[in-house]
Write a structure and sequence with these properties.
Blueprint: H1 4-18, H2 26-46, H3 60-78, H4 86-109, H5 113-139, H6 163-181, H7 188-207, H8 211-227, H9 231-252, H10 255-258, H11 264-298, H12 312-332, H13 355-368, H14 379-386, H15 399-432, H16 434-451, H17 460-477
Main location: membrane
Membrane topology: Multi-pass membrane protein
Domain O-antigen ligase-related: 197-415
C-alpha cells in the first residue's frame, strides 16, 4: 500500500497530459517532469531493497534499456551546446529527461507481479478515456464542445490535437483491450469491459484517418497472436475486431460524425444515431465475450494452443517489417498524387506522402554530421535550407532518422540500446511469464512501427504509457534473468 500513491501518479499522469495537448507544450511537460521526479523520490525511499532483489533491476537487458535512455537524455542535453535551435534543444532535453525518469520509476514500481498486472489495464483505460472524449465531441456535439483545427480537416484530433498521435494511442489501446479480452486469468467482467472498450478505440483509430496507425494496429495484432497463440486469444481478437468494425461503420456513415460537417442540429441528430450504434456494438461485444467465456468454462469450444508452426515468430517479424517497408517502397517508386486531405477514406488508398522528402533531408544531414549530428532540434534548420517543397516542418517524422540527423551515431546507438534492452527484457518475460508479456510487447510493437513514420516521441501522452509497459517488462525480467 505504501507504493500506491506513486503508482497511481505514474498511471494517471499520462491520461491527464492527454487533455493538455498531449503534453507537447512547455507547461504541462514541466509539470509532468516535476511529478515524475516526486514519484521517483518516493519510490526510491519506499521500495525495499535486498541483495536478492536490488533497488534497480540487474541483468543485461534492464541495464541496457535504462542506461540507453538515461544516456540519451544526457546526450540530448549536451547537444544543446551545438544545436542551431537552442529553445528546441532545451525542450527536447526536458522531454527525454521526463521519459528517462518515468522508465526508472516504472522499473521500481512494477517489481511485484500483482502490481504489474495493473499496467496493462491502466494503459487500456487511459486510451479509452482520451479517445472516448474525442469521440463524444462528435457524437454529442451540443454537450461536449471541442476545438476543430483547420489543419486536421475533420480528422479525430482531440484531445491530443494531432490526428496521427490520436490514431497511434487508439491503436495501442485496442491491442491492449484485445489482449485483456483474451486473458483467461482475468475476471470475466474485466474481459467483457475490455471487449466493449475496444469498439470506440477501433472507431478512433479509423476516424483519425492515419494510415500509419492502421498499419501499426495490424502489426500489433499479428504480434499479439504469435505471443499468445491460443484459441481464446484468437476468439478475443475476432470479437474485438468484428464489434470494432461495426462500431466504426456506425460512425463513418454520417458526415457530421466523420468529418464534422453540417449544422449543429444536423450533427446532433447524426451523432445520436451513431452513438446508439456504437453502444449497441459495445454491448454486443461484452455479451459475446461473456458467452464465449461460459462456453470455454463448460468445454463447449476449442481450447488450448493454436497449431502454429515453429517458424511463426519469424513469419510475424517478416509481416511487421513488410507492413512498414512495402508501402514505403511502393510510394517511393511511384509518382502518384498526394493523398486526399482531411477525413476521407480516399487517404487510405494512397501511399504517397511528403514524408519521403523529410527523410531525404534527414539522411543528408546525417551524412554531413555523422558522429554528433546537427544537435537536438536541428532538423528544422536543415529542412529550411534544403526543402524541395514549401511546407513548414519541424520534425523528420521518424524517430530513427531524426535521431541520426540530430544526434548522430552516438544518439542512434543509445536509442538502439534502449530498444534492444527492452526487447531482451520482453523476450525473457515472454519465455517465463507469457501471460504478462504478450499485451505489453504487442503494444510496444504498435508504438515502434508508428514512431518510425511519425513524431510520437514528442507527444508524452502517447510515449509515457508505452514506457510504463516497457518499465514493467524491465522490472519483471529481473526475476528471471
Amino acid at each position: 500500500m505504501r507504493l500506491l500513491p506513486p503508482r497511481v501518479l505514474l498511471l494517471t499522469g499520462p491520461v491527464a497530459l492527454a487533455f493538455f495537448s498531449g503534453g507537447y507544450d512547455d507547461r504541462p511537460r514541466l509539470v509532468a517532469l516535476a511529478a515524475a521526479a516526486v514519484a521517483l523520490a518516493a519510490l526510491a525511499v519506499l521500495t525495499p531493497s535486498t541483495r536478492a532483489l536490488p533497488l534497480l533491476p540487474s541483468g543485461w537487458g534492464p541495464r541496457t534499456a535504462l542506461g540507453g535512455l538515461i544516456g540519451l537524455a544526457a546526450w540530448v542535453a549536451l547537444s544543446h551546446r551545438w544545436s542551431p535551435v537552442k529553445d528546441a534543444a532545451a525542450d527536447d532535453a526536458e522531454r527525454v529527461t521526463l521519459y528517462a525518469t518515468a522508465l526508472v520509476c516504472a522499473a521500481l514500481a512494477w517489481r511485484e507481479r500483482a502490481a504489474a498486472r495493473w499496467v496493462e489495464l491502466a494503459g487500456a483505460a487511459g486510451a479509452f478515456a482520451a479517445i472516448g472524449y474525442g469521440l463524444l465531441g462528435r457524437l454529442l456535439p451540443g454537450v461536449v464542445r471541442e476545438h476543430a483545427s483547420v489543419s486536421a480537416g475533420g480528422r479525430l484530433e482531440q484531445p491530443l490535437t494531432y490526428w496521427n498521435a490520436e490514431g497511434a494511442l487508439a491503436a495501442v489501446g485496442f491491442v491492449l483491450c484485445a489482449r485483456i479480452t483474451g486473458d483467461r486469468s482475468r475476471p470475466v467482467a474485466v474481459r467483457a469491459l475490455a471487449a466493449a472498450a475496444a469498439v470506440p478505440l477501433a472507431a478512433g483509430t479509423y476516424l483519425s484517418f492515419s494510415r500509419g496507425a492502421l498499419v501499426a494496429l495490424a502489426a500489433g495484432v499479428v504480434v499479439l497472436l504469435v505471443l499468445a497463440p491460443t484459441w481464446t486469444q484468437l476468439r478475443a481478437i475476432a470479437i474485438c475486431a468484428e464489434a470494432g468494425a461495426g462500431g466504426t461503420l456506425a460512425a463513418v456513415v454520417f458526415p457530421g460524425v466523420r468529418e464534422l460537417s453540417g449544422s449543429l442540429g444536423h450533427r446532433e441528430l447524426e451523432g445520436a444515431i451513431a452513438l446508439a450504434g456504437l453502444l449497441l456494438m459495445m454491448g454486443g461485444a461484452a455479451a459475446l465475450l461473456a458467452w464465449a467465456a461460459s462456453a470455454e468454462a463448460a468445454g463447449r469450444t476449442r481450447m488450448g494452443r493454436l497449431p502454429l508452426p515453429g517458424w511463426a515468430p519469424y513469419a510475424a517479424t517478416a509481416i511487421v517489417v513488410a507492413l512498414v517497408a512495402v508501402p514505403v517502397a511502393v510510394a517511393r517508386s511511384s509518382d502518384g498524387p498526394s493523398p486526399s486531405f482531411g477525413a476521407t477514406s480516399a487517404r487510405l488508398t494512397s501511399a504517397s506522402s511528403n514524408r519521403y522528402d523529410y527523410w531525404k533531408v534527414a539522411a543528408r544531414a546525417f551524412e554531413h554530421h555523422p558522429v554528433r549530428g546537427l544537435g537536438s532540434g536541428g532538423f528544422r534548420t536543415a529542412w529550411l535550407r534544403e526543402r524541395p517543397i514549401g511546407e513548414r516542418v519541424r520534425d523528420a517524422h521518424s524517430l530513427e532518422l531524426e535521431t541520426l540527423a540530430e544526434l548522430g551515431l552516438v544518439g542512434a546507438l543509445l536509442l538502439a540500446c534502449l530498444a534492444g534492452g527492452i526487447g531482451w527484457c520482453a523476450r525473457i518475460v515472454q519465455r517465463e511469464d507469457p501471460a504478462l508479456a504478450a499485451g505489453a510487447a504487442a503494444a510496444l510493437v504498435v508504438f515502434g512501427v508508428h514512431s518510425a513514420v511519425d513524431w510520437d516521441w514528442e507527444m508524452p501522452a502517447v510515449t509515457l504509457p508505452v514506457l510504463a509497459l516497457a518499465g514493467m517488462l524491465v522490472a519483471q525480467s529481473a526475476h528471471h534473468e
